[in-house]
Amino acid sequence: MSDVTAPTNEDVRRFWDANPVAAEAITAELGNSEFFKRFDKLRESEDCEPYDYSNRIHGYGPTRAKRVLDVGCGNGYVLSRYARHGALVHGVDITAKAVALSRKRFELDGQDADFQQIDGVRLPDRDNHFDSVCSMGVLHHIADPSPTVAELRRVLKRGGEFIMMLYYRWSYKDVVLFRLKRLFDARYRGKSQQQARNMNDGRECPLAMVYSKQEAAALLSDFEQPEFRLNQLAWRQLLLALALALVS
User: Fold this and answer.
1) What is Dmax (Cα atoms) for the chain?
2) What count of other Cβ atoms lies within 10 Å of the Cβ of residue 32?
3) Alpha helices (H) in the chain, listed in sequence order
4) Which residues, listed in sequence order, are joined to residue 177 by a DSSP beta bridge?
5) Which residues contact 43 (CB under 8 A, 6 or more apart)?
6) Residue 161 backbone dihedrals phi, psi, to 5 degrees
7) 27, 87, 168, 211: least buried by Cβ within 10 Å?
């Protein structure tokens, strides 16, 4: 991955501040109750991440009174699910807009949480503080996430759980779809494979890395008993993605 030019924190902050997750796809005022309702419906759809699948990953239920940290909290979706089961939740994000959205979500839900705008490289929390730490679809936007992972390991209690989502190197999207887009989609023509990956989250997205299981395991070398799960697309999603790539 040494051939990837690392974006600065300011590059990352500027992009995500201007492009909150899924905001472009939601026809509701950013941050009002209808926005969160539509976001949650989109997030939990069969074509994305159904709640039952998310619950299997996070285990929201048995977290009452446990301290949970989400690094790259977005609009607070994941933490709100923990909070509904009585967890003590803390969220950090590189953008002020994400922090504001998370606070608004929790205000509307009548829930308590602590949110801070922090880049994640250094956290203000003491060692061994959190029972669970998660970072969902965030660390693959950093060329070298190792310092952040080390910091998350520091604040995690011994025996605690770290849950991380990364883009998969051998996914259908990376192996097939992006290559087809580079051939048939004018927006992608002339782009490198890495540039096509970056565009997955928006045309101006600074960086989107992919990881094999071996690369992810190396990133998690200081953690015990790593487990891996693949969230696979349904067959109709594969056909739709292929059709869009060919007709775009």
Assistant:
1) 53
2) 11
3) 9-18, 33-43, 51-58, 77-83, 96-109, 146-155, 172, 178-184, 193-198, 213-219, 235-247
4) none
5) 22, 49, 77
6) -120, 130
7) 27
What DSSP string runs through 143-185?
S--HHHHHHHHHHEEEEEEEEEE--BTT-HIIIIIHHHHHHH-
Of residues 62, 61, 90, 237, the one with CA closest to residue 152: 90
For helices 9-18 and 96-109, angle between their N-to-C axes, nearest 10 degrees? 50
Residues 109 and 133: beta-carbon distance below 8 Å: no
pTM of the prediction? Answer: 0.91
CB 68 within 8 A of CB 87: yes
The amino acid at residue 203 is: R
pLDDT in tens, 26-64: 999 999 999 999 999 999 988 789 999 999 999 999 999
In sequence order, the β-bridge partners of residue 67 are: 88
